[in-house]
Specification:
15-stranded antiparallel beta sheet, 54% strand
């Protein structure tokens, strides 16, 4: 299968030295027909007070993981994003809200209040369906999300983030609201030094009211939502053209190992689907003739506890300007 997966257009405007507008619009799958769409990826008004304290208002990218805020093809390893950052951290993830952010030079932070996820769209495959994406978002419940990163020296990043809020929104069962308290937590490291790129991330999510959510949605057997979800990945690459005469170019072989389980535990009376416990090994290479263009080719070996994994051969062309 071939696919014009996405094209993104950025538009920004600076009103004055303090106020600015940042927007991105995403075109997916080449058309608004045949499963394609056009969406606002983010639209936020910003008040820039100082490097250490600023404010954002609008449709915000949720500041979790290594991919959600920086997801252009030239800045992440692999033809596809890690599965952990799709099913547990549901990238690309944006919600309506407001918050503060800043950078002291060594430490950076973000803290937002956003509308909560929509638990009625959770499934045995994870939390991805619960994104509301800013469109008529049901806001009976809000969530708090925070992130902090430490950069002790250029190219070395260590950090973590959390999300907590109710996801029940307008769900009700037997005349009682189903709140579905949802917590997502992750830690990450990203090191880029002398041609080496090494990164890792671990994520954990926990849902309350999971049994009530299953009953409300009619899920039975191994179709249960995960009461807990967990996953991690580690990946490494090395630029073979680093410190050569090919200035501005990069050729990076890379390797990723990943494991994710969207039904690490389920409520009593339900069972986990072995296919939800997945692992994969991806190996390939990325060539950049110049920093804003990338060609990626990789092979992904998928396996799960049900022995039903299908392997993938992926080729990607990406650009940013």
């Amino acid at each position: 299968m071939t696919d014009l997966l996405r094209a993104i257009v950025y538009v920004g405007y600076k009103f004055n030295s303090k106020w600015l507008l940042n927007t991105e619009f995403e075109f997916e799958h080449g058309s608004t027909g045949a499963g394609g769409s056009v969406s606002a990826e983010f639209i936020h008004l910003e008040y820039t007070h100082s490097p250490a304290f600023n404010m954002r208002f609008g449709l915000l990218l949720v500041p979790m993981g290594l991919v959600n805020e920086l997801h252009e093809p030239t800045v992440y390893m692999g033809a596809n994003r890690p599965d952990v950052e799709k099913s547990i951290i549901p990238s690309t993830w944006r919600e309506n809200g407001m918050g503060i952010y800043g950078d002291t030079g060594t430490v950076s932070y973000r803290a937002y209040i956003v509308n909560g996820l929509k638990g009625s769209k959770f499934s045995s495959g994870g939390l991805r369906g619960g994104r509301q994406k800013g469109g008529r978002a049901v806001s009976d419940h809000f969530a708090l999300v925070g992130r902090a990163d430490v950069t002790p020296r250029p190219g070395f990043l260590f950090g973590g983030s959390f999300y907590y809020g109710n996801s029940g929104q307008d769900l009700a069962r037997e005349n009682a609201n189903v709140k579905v308290p949802t917590g997502i937590y992750e830690g990450h490291v990203d090191i880029r030094h002398s041609g080496l790129w090494l990164s890792a991330l671990a994520a954990y999510a926990k849902l309350g009211d999971a049994a009530a959510l299953n009953e409300t949605l009619g899920y039975t057997g191994n179709g249960s939502v995960g009461e807990t979800l967990n996953g991690f990945y580690v990946q490494a690459g090395y630029d073979l053209l680093h410190r050569t005469t090919y200035v501005g170019q990069s050729f990076m072989p890379y390797l990723r190992f990943e494991r994710v389980n969207t039904q690490a535990s389920v409520p009593s009376g339900y069972e986990s689907n072995p296919a939800s416990d997945k692992s994969s090994i991806t190996f390939g290479a990325a060539y950049q003739p110049e920093p804003r263009i990338v060609f990626k080719l990789d092979y992904k070996n998928n396996s799960n506890e049900a022995d039903s994994g299908l392997d993938q051969l992926n080729f990607q062309v990406g650009y940013v300007f």
